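Extended Data, panel c. Modelled sequence:
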Amino acid sequence: EGTLNPDHIKFFLGYSGWSPGQLEEEMDEKSWLLSKAKGHYVFDIGRSELWKTVLNDLGGDYKMITNYPEDPRLN
């Protein structure tokens, strides 16, 4: 009916796999950065700004990271 705006659609596609216990081990090692899921992350933030927005929302040392260059060799 033309009622759906294509700008309001996002597709996320990918695959991640772990061996038994691997994810738990990585979590214990703090290899992952966790954040509460927020609807505006998915629906309102462009993909080029998502990582920076989440880090800013986490604050503290994470907020500092947002000022690092995309290519760490330029730091």
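The mean pLDDT is 86. This feature is highlighted in the accompanying rendering.
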